[in-house]
From TrEMBL:
Designated name of the protein: Protein RDM1
InterPro entries documented for this protein: RDM1_plant, RDM1_sf
Record-level GO BP terms: gene silencing by siRNA-directed DNA methylation
Any one Pfam family match given in the protein's UniProt record, by short name: RdDM_RDM1
GO cellular component, one term: RNA polymerase V complex
SUPFAM superfamilies hit by this protein: Hypothetical protein At3g22680 (SSF109920)
């Protein structure tokens, strides 16, 4: 159960009645890394929750600056939503929002066990651009409306969040302990 002792601000990431593992993660956020993808972090480094919120603010600020492309590319064959997101990033030369990546993963999971599970998105959508437009509309919402506090809370439980955000910003070295 959540309770609020003070007014909620960006510094109040989570207040809980229980002494669970998630409470322990508030003190320090362990960052697991892949040296090839995220050279700004090293294994076993931690970020203070306030630094994580500041990182989320900077990430969201940078993502808001990126314009959604007005032009569209020719059709590309993609099997799933995650593949579409990767293709869009490569073709348009800009990273997609952390939440867009998470949503594409969930959309792919929702296809497991369906009759169209193995069908490429191109075969499901009559017009391939409908799938691409869907991702761009979701991307615009994530870029313009996402709370940095919400991002920081998600990142507390995602040891690989840095792989996506390092494409946009690098964490300040002063916040790494």
């Amino acid at each position: 159960m959540l309770r609020r002792n003070h007014s909620a601000t960006y510094k109040h990431i989570l207040v809980s009645d229980s002494d669970t593992e998630s409470d322990d993660s508030l003190n320090n956020v362990a960052v697991a890394t892949d040296d090839q993808l995220a050279t700004t972090f090293k294994s076993k480094q931690t970020l203070h929750p306030d630094a994580l919120v500041e990182l989320a603010k900077e990430y969201q600020k940078q993502m808001k600056k990126k314009a959604i492309p007005k032009y569209r590319i020719n059709e590309v064959v993609v099997v799933n939503w995650k593949g579409l997101a990767k293709s869009m990033k490569r073709l348009y030369g800009q990273p997609l929002h952390y939440l867009t990546h998470k949503l594409c993963k969930e959309w792919d999971k929702s296809r497991f066990g369906s009759k169209d599970e193995e069908k490429p998105l191109n075969a499901i959508y009559d017009n391939w651009r409908d799938a691409e437009d869907t991702v761009w509309k979701v991307e615009e919402v994530h870029r313009l409306c996402t709370s940095p506090l919400h991002l920081a809370m998600l990142w507390l439980h995602d040891p690989e969040y840095h792989i996506i955000i390092n494409e946009v910003i690098s964490p300040p070295s002063s916040s790494i302990k």
